[in-house]
Amino acid sequence: MTTVFANMQASRRAVLAGGAAALAAGCSRGLGGGVLTATDTHVFDYPTVQAVVHFGELLEQATGGRLSLRMYAGGQLGNERDTLEITTFGGLDFNRVNLAPLNSIEPLTRVAALPFLFTSTEHMRSTLDGPIGAEILASLEPHGLIGLCFYDSGARSFYNTRGPIRTPDDMRGLKLRVPGSDLYIAMVQSLDADAVPMPLDEVYQSLAQGVIDGAENNWPSFESGRHFEVARYYSLTRHLLAPEVFVMSKRRWDTLSASDQSLIRQAAKQSVPYMRDLWDAQVAKSKAIIMKSGVEVNEIEPAPFAERMRGMWAEFLTTPQQRDLVKQIQAVGGVT
Ligand code: GTR
Questions:
Q1: I want to staple 333 with a disulfide (CB 3.0 to 4.6 A). Which of 75, 123, 238, 260 is the partner?
Q2: Whose CA is nearest to atom 3 of ligand 1?
Q3: What is the pTM assigned to this prediction?
Q4: Is the CB of 181 within 6 Å of ligand 1?
């Protein structure tokens, strides 16, 4: 506990220092131009970071260099929840986060974060590229964020230090890290495991010290966070295909001209196929590294996991709009 608390303090200090740096960078903006700031929890060569950097290059080209982007990667400005807060008050211009930290802020984001909702990557992509995705992105605006686009996040599966998970019963009593989202907590609890919410940058140390037994994530995050060096069992539950989201501070957005706003939307849209190519390549690369390291990877029979996890949907679908979106998403995926 002491360690987790000390880390929280350290990351708060980083946010404050980072926020000040970001604000200082913001001061270099002139009328209608300048350097815009962006942040991401992942390291610089991670696909989400590279997609946002590419977005910045597209924007710079489109504005003849009038607008450019400075990326603060690797969680240097703090964890996703803290940097989102900075983004909403305008201390940062852009942020790339998972849907998880938005789950408690906007109910519609919970829809796309439901376990075993999307039946395949194609289902997830076609849903989020269309009007359903647009509706979820638009729902962020009253919360001070302009939702620009979704990026891929692959499938999340459980990994742990104890042994292979084959059935939901194997999860009973495991202490599993989840992002700070009630939905993730309930999801893990539906399998009778103990959910331990904590920021991503504390997972490696917590696994190494036995504070937690495991966590859940996609191949690239399991690899880039070096979690696979400690958690030697990866069980392919593929329970979540929840996407990443790229957002802009509404405060900054409101200061831009309509034509700059449309250039931003256009560049964000163009960065999506670029990200997907990087993503597919990164999944293959991370998978190869993990397999080579000798991690025991096993397939599972999804039905019993899906049955248990779908049991918590109702608790998080509290509005007719959410329930309607779920029906529409299931219809896109051919589920009746
Ligand atoms: C990753 C995702 C991050 C963060 C992380 C986590 O897959 O890209 O944005 O949400 O998972 O588990 O905290």
A1: 123
A2: 98
A3: 0.92
A4: no
